[in-house]
Amino acid sequence: GNDSTAGLVDPLTPVPPKPLIKSKSQISQELQTVRKSLPIWSFQSEIRTTIRDSDTMVLVGETGSGKSTQIGQFLLNQPYMSKMISASGKKYGGCIAITQPRRVAAISLAQRVSSEMGTTLGKEVGYCVRFDNVSDASTKIRYLTDGMLLNEILHDPELSRYSVVVVDEAHERSVSTDLGMGLLKGIVESRRKEKVPLKLIVMSATLDVEKMANYVGGTPKPGETSEEVIPAPICRIPGKIFPVEVFYTPVSIDNFQTAAAKTIFQVHYQYPCPGDILVFSTGSEEIEELASMVEELALQMEPDKPKLNVMRLYASLDPVEQQKVFVKGSPKERKVIISTNIAETSVTVPGVRHVIDCGKVKMKRFRHQLGIESLLVTDISQASAQQRKGRAGREAAGTCYRLYTEGHFKRLQKDTEPDILHCDLAGAMLTLLAMKSEHSMTTVNNFPFLDGPNHQSRVKALTTLLELGALDNKGNITKVGTKMSKFPLPPAQSRVIVAAGEEEEQNKKSEENVLVDVIDVLSCLSVDGNIILQPTRWRKTLAEPKKEVDPLLPQKKKKKRKHADDEDSDEDLTLEERVHSKRMDIVHPSGDHITYLNILRRYLSKRANEQKKFCQEYQISYPLMRKVENIRKQLRGYCRLDKVGDLPRDSEMKYESDTMVARYPRVSQEQTEKILKCFMAGLGVENIAKRAKGGKYRTLTSSGNTSSGVDVSVHPSSCLMWERSEHEAKRTKKDEGRSSWQRLPEGFGEAVMYQDVVWTSKAFMKCVSKIRLEWTTEVFEDLTIYGT
Ligand code: ADP
Predict the structure, then answer these.
(1) Is residue 348 in contact with ligand 1, taking CB distance under 6 Å?
(2) Is there an atom of ligand 1 within 6 Å of 398 CB?
(3) Which of 16, 99, 122, 422 is least surrounded by Cβ atoms within 10 Å, i.e. has the fewest?
(4) Who wins on pLDDT, 745 or 413?
(5) How far apart are CA 503 and CA 323, in angstroms?
(6) Ligand 1 atom 16: the closest Cα is on which residue?
(7) What's the gap between Cα 32 and its chain centre?
(8) Which atom of ligand 1 lies at the shortest distance from residue 40's CA?
């Protein structure tokens, strides 16, 4: 060799530029340094020995201390992780499950841990969430939603592939977490008896630790059969928290959006960078609105001010978008992260020094008055407020602005109540009942809940299942119920599929397959978020050519517009007009359900490279449509597996939608009726509202009565609220038949059915379709409609 000249640079060879992209080993080294700085790092051996000596343990530590990312890696090569064989010769173990209440968290944690370990996502480290499984037989650390864990227990009651199950975010007390813990207690016990132990670790940020330790229960010593409860061992990771100064508003405020925006700029002008701002808002729509507002106001800042980099964070956001919040910003700009309560304990955003807290949270709540579950904006608890405040003191001293008065804070409930006390339990009950045959302990009435749901919710859940035909009069699960339990959908929606399957079986070989169409609509409903983008989100996705601002523009435009009307050209329409006019091709006059079907049929009939363009033109979310396609495929798979209906093969799917669009540019009247009736069967009388005077609607109660019903309005996002633009009106006069605003037959709109209710200023129905009142007595036999 040439070793002696290795250090010399040949003057004729250009020096290669420094690589801008960090090498793999550089990244992994940096990640290792970060790992070692996490508070949990020094507790590694304590955690390992505790769970070696006991089958259960409770692990408590502040958000961001490293629990979710490190626990799996700590346990990976421990002796209790190896595969075991029971006396009967069955194989057990080898994998760690880590459950999350939110799918986003499961995905982003798996991504993070797999890059920390330098592996390919889906191999050693993977995830499994509803409709998306990125893991295989070699997976050792598997992040999954708590709902998916329940689904796995349905299929494998002993969870035989796992050596360890970690229940993360237990403090959130989601219904599935609570249910999962109850079931896991039983599984730990039965696997201990078979000498193929399953380890259970319950983790949380804030928790009534002793209560949880008693509930989970410790491991009795061999031969010990004490009647007393042995608590599970507890491991605490002390958190480092810097002081956070709290400010309240002097008077209570109504408009959180403007108050939040004002506070953001106040903080920005008052405190030098670095120090990012985290804003707690309620939901995706509020977040988008506030974010746009801040972005617009930021344009008016003096040029010497550091830039504001506005980021959104909510569960239905694209994971790629979400990942952006983890990136450390440059010192010359300030991140403003506007988030739901997902940033409260679930996601740790680095760099935050200022928190703005609106004091509200959007939660699923059971509305006894309406008889249905809906998303409701409610006050947070004091515990929640403290947790939010703490987000500002992770890295240095910080500030927290509460957009409410100190008096209001003092009146807040001390702790957040578990969901199980508020939510619709029908789905959970159905899962339990479907398991009953396999799990002797899981009868609904003696299930070991940490906090038992009250009598009223239990009765309500059982009544719902009875009404759906999932239970018989004796309370036993029916064939329909068993079929329903196999779908990863809420009972109302799985009932729709089963109803469509029945309809399809009766009407075999009819060209328009109801089951196919119902699955299509349900797929559109099953994505997080509306596939039809709302006007506030249009600008971002539509690449409009930027024009120079011309002071003469208003006049010019007017002149041109007049011209355009004559020529009937699309060119000079505003974005709104253009999209609206386009959308008139796909809207169905009955409402949202069939409009979704129209959209999906059109989308599927396009070639792959044209689908994106289609979405742009109609302002439909392309990423969501990709997900819809995937969900559709999986729901069809479940139908085949459980022998619901008779579906065409996957290879025919594309062809099928092509021909559908060619033959039926519009969904036929008859088919519309069949589809909507299937949905009614699942949604029940409670999701039907009858038209009252003045274009309003009033809900029916289960007896068919409207006099005790509630006034509800159609949500602005429904296509029933799309108005025909002036332009479109003119055009259709010329070109009758192009628009699908065909007339509906007599009686449509006497009543509506809806998927969801949201409460803002009043009760709004989301995803609404017009129906005929007489269908209600047809679908719900024995129902008489009273009142007006
Ligand atoms: P805990 O479970 O105790 O709340 P985590 O293990 O979730 O803590 O987080 C530990 C650290 O890893 C945090 O500082 C967090 O910012 C970082 N982290 C977590 N997930 C990601 C991710 N997907 N990308 C980048 N950093 C992440």
Answers:
(1) yes
(2) no
(3) 16
(4) 413
(5) 44
(6) 348
(7) 31
(8) 3
Name the pairing type of β-strands 360-367 and 372-379.
antiparallel
Which tokens is 417 given?
């109540």
Is the pLDDT at 560 greater than 50, yes or no? no
Question: In this structure, is the dihedral angle defined by the CA atoms of residues 253, 256, 261 and 266, taken in order, positive or negative?
Answer: positive
Closest CA to 277 of 320, 239, 315, 333: 333
Residue 404 phi, psi (nearest 5): -155, 170
CB-based contact 522:497 (threshold 8 Å): yes
ipTM over 0.90: yes
Residues in the chain, overall count: 788
Which atom of ligand 1 is closest in space to residue 237's alpha carbon?
3
Which residues in 291-423 belong to E strands, given as ranges? Answer: 307-313, 333-339, 352-357, 360-367, 372-379, 398-402
Among 412-426, 514-528, 601-615, the range scoring the smallest mean pLDDT is 412-426
Which two tokens mark 722?
Answer: 């799309």
Q: How far does residue 108's CA lie from ligand 1's centre (Å)?
A: 9
Percent helix / strand / coil, the chain, rounded to 5: 45, 15, 40
The answer to whether the CB of 201 falls within 8 A of the CB of 167 is: yes
CA distance 314 to 319: 10
- Report helix, strand or coil for 12: coil
* Short-list 292, 719, 291, CA closest to 532: 719
Cα dist. 182→117, 154, 762 in Å? Answer: 32, 14, 38
Q: Which residue has the tokens 């517009």?
A: 561
**Residue of 69, 114, 167 to test ligand 1 pocket, by largest number of atoms within 8 Å of CB:** 69
Tokens for 365, please give them. 């709540």
Q: Contact, 483 vs 493, CB < 8 A? A: no
Model confidence pLDDT, tens digit, residues 211-238: 889 999 888 877 666 667 789 999 999 8
The span from the CA of 610 to the CA of 624, in Å, is: 16
> How far, in Å, from the CA of 421 to the mean position of ligand 1?
30
Q: In this structure, are residues 382 and 412 in contact, taking their beta carbons and an 8 Å threshold?
A: yes
The token duo for 642 is 């459980």
Instruction: Please give the single-letter amino acid code of residue 313.
Output: L
